[in-house]
Amino acid sequence: MASSTTTSGQMHRVTDGSVHTPLGFKATGLHAKVKRKRKDLGVIVCDVPASAAAVYTLNQIQAAPLDVTRESIAEGGTLRAVIVNSGQANAVMGKVGVADAYEMRDKTAKTFGLDPRDVAVSSTGTIGERVQMEKILPGIEALQPEATAASSNAFAESILTTDTCTKETCYATEIDGKTIHIGGVAKGSGMIHPNMATMLSFVTTDAAIAPEHLQQALSEITDRTYNRITIDGDTSTNDMVLTLASGKAENKPLHPGHPDWAHFIQTLECVCEAQSKQIARDGEGATKLVEVNVKGAPTAEDAGKISKQIVGSDLLKTAVFGTDGNWGRIICAIGYSGVTIDPETIDIAIGPHLTLSQSEPVDFSEEAVTAHLEQDEVFIEVDLHIGDSSGKAWGCDLTYDYVRINAGYRT
Amino acid sequence: MASSTTTSGQMHRVTDGSVHTPLGFKATGLHAKVKRKRKDLGVIVCDVPASAAAVYTLNQIQAAPLDVTRESIAEGGTLRAVIVNSGQANAVMGKVGVADAYEMRDKTAKTFGLDPRDVAVSSTGTIGERVQMEKILPGIEALQPEATAASSNAFAESILTTDTCTKETCYATEIDGKTIHIGGVAKGSGMIHPNMATMLSFVTTDAAIAPEHLQQALSEITDRTYNRITIDGDTSTNDMVLTLASGKAENKPLHPGHPDWAHFIQTLECVCEAQSKQIARDGEGATKLVEVNVKGAPTAEDAGKISKQIVGSDLLKTAVFGTDGNWGRIICAIGYSGVTIDPETIDIAIGPHLTLSQSEPVDFSEEAVTAHLEQDEVFIEVDLHIGDSSGKAWGCDLTYDYVRINAGYRT
Fold it and tell me: What is the DSSP letter of B132?
């Protein structure tokens, strides 16, 4: 397990922590030779039946593994393993795709001595290509999961597609005087406009919590984290966030009436937000993370909707890439977000620099705004002055590399 | 007037026709020196009070000229002139922007001997920059409109921003045995995702029609034409389609009970669709026009919504740029369009080549699909097999040049 310096009751980040850090979990990934060089097959396993919760893409076209995973979770609400391949999405493959997803599940169950209903299946990659079962099945047999940072990192590598880096996080805190850990691994990059999902994220914890309460926590947090990132406005067919809780921290089971429930939610949200920001920062072709914070909105939902509309605007994204403090594109996006606003009361700041006050242009320093936009984290803050709620969203810039990557991804 | 070879009752395109072709209209454009070299100020005038109809952007942030135009049309439903500047959008400029728009209207009225309420005002360009009145006002005085193809073309040039070409169309037909003409000039390029509008389009006709019936026709047609194009998903603050009818063709006034009403609608739609396709083809950085036709939908509205979702997908647009027959991105967009579909009954063709049949991949020739995608007009056809309605949408590819243009547009 990674080093950790717990302060009682205080949430803190665990250095080198990942999905193996919570007690009971092992992971690994390997190169099954579907991709030319990079790892393409990974697994997370749990020593005990783990409470499971998941959220799935809202795209009506859903890849076969999502149905198989739903079926596994429906059986008792627990899981022991999740198998993931990258390269082929196993989406829109008709009956053969469903059969392949079941075969991946069966092979994983047999390899690790589990019931098929203990196994979730997840795929990411090109839509409409068949999973290369002749490579994946022997690959599953060769997987040897461990509880080390290196093996979690191998898993994190194995689920990447056009991502340029692995995405891992771990936080620890105390619940009932017991230390609990929450670790996460994610992939993102393209076709990212969760509604929900459009990416994969796997979160493990050793907290004790029943499946229904874990689902409640995950659903609530997803709306404020994974559902607030956008790379390109495309909602994928394959994406899911899967959370597994081993209970090995031996806290009293968490539920909404537990005195530490809010604290647990806060810690889980911290992991999910960190994952979301890592996905946004590594958007296809991205050079910058963009965070938009909308304040003064009638509801948190409205604030989130406007934040996401701004961060998803191609014109804003190209302006950020070009370090152009073009606030006109920000107010334009506010105006077409679908939320009723007052056109006369809007403030817009880029970094610490106010550019619009009460909907009137402010005489600001272009140089100072450009300097902020040259940073690798860009902050945009909007105050609507029509309410007390706020909400954030995350995205990235739109660059030549986004076009290059997607003009040539498949061929 | 341009040459025309009318076949009785038959609609046909008028070679070199434009907004000056319908009887009663003159136009021109000039270089008021706001832009470095290109024309930046234009006017259309009518000899008589013309029935006027307009549709405006649905963005809640609306530029000052839109309110001024609304006010002019509200006074009696007729107009005699529209003045247009390009370079500054006169949007989000507070009180000074409103005053500038009124001053442009007053100056135009005075120059052409009209009442201010006879004049519409339109602006396009950068949001949050003040119109350079010291150049625009003398420019208005210098405008000398004529009824020639050259002067209409000067107007068409004067309203462009990042457009690479002028957009003009004219159709003629017979109504009550009288020849009527409908001419149009448009600009588009960026911030184009009409809902309505997000571009400028000016349509003139010499047909006789009352303002309320012209408005009815325009609103109906806009939903199937201008509202079906998308360049980048951004809905602008400035856009409008303005239609003026001089009545000089001397047909019996058109209305929904007129025997030629459907024929008039068809002719007007022809002009509006031609304008829309020209805007889509000249999207910022675009190299190709993409037309998506969705069939077998429950309603025409559903078909249009799905068509527009497909044509607006950044991933599809980059695939078209890269001539990659990636139908997975098409079905993905179908799945998140918000319209309820049957995931098992979808056909997708790229050009004449079927790639997906009843939601199962078809073994197609990649070379043949790539060859179609190399054309400068790309056709995508979807059959949902769940109804009898169809609808089209138009867009363009997403290229390196879109990023280049928008990363550097303002600075």
Answer: -
b/e sequence B273-305, b meaning 16+ C-beta within 10 Å: bbbbbbbbbbbbbbebbbbbbbbbbeebebbbb
* pLDDT tier, B190 (very low <50, low <70, confident <90, very high otherwise): low
Closest chain A residue by Cα to residue B411: A324
Report H helices in B112-229.
133-142, 149-158, 211-224
State the Cα angle at B97 between B94 and B100, rounded to 5°: 155
Chain A partners within 8 Å of B327 (Cβ): 128
Whole-Å CA distances, B118 to A58, A283, B83, B114, B211: 50, 51, 11, 6, 14
User: Which amino acid type is present at position B130?
Assistant: R
Which of B60, B196, B316, B398 is best to mutate for the A interface (most A CBs within 10 A)? B60
Task: Give the domains, in start order, of chain A with CATH numbers.
Answer: 12-279 (3.60.70.12), 289-407 (3.10.20.340)
Identify all chain A residues contacting B398, using CB atoms and an 8 Å cutoff: 403, 406
Residue A410 has pLDDT above 60, yes or no: no
Cross-chain Cβ contact B329/A233 below 8 Å? no
At residue B59, the pLDDT reads 79
For residue A194, list chain B residues with Cβ-Cβ distance below 8 A.
none
Closest CA to A83 of A62, A53, A106, A60: A106
pLDDT at B6: 37
Closest CA to A201 of A271, A108, A282, A125: A271
Q: How far is CA A277 from CA A55, A100, A107, A188, B231, in A?
A: 18, 33, 34, 10, 28
pLDDT in tens, A290-332: 999 999 999 999 999 999 999 988 889 999 999 988 898 899 8
Give residue B335's pLDDT: 87
Count CB-CB contacts under 10 A for residue A144: 10
Beta carbons of A196 and A217 less than 8 angstroms apart: no
Mean pLDDT computed over B213-220: 94
Query: Given an 8 Å threshold on Cβ–Cβ distance, is A332 in contact with B235?
Result: yes
Selecting from B324, B331, B361 the residue whose C-beta is nearest the C-beta of A407 gives B324
Rounded (10°) CA dihedral A210, A214, A215, A218: 180
Contact (CB<8Å) B89/A328: yes
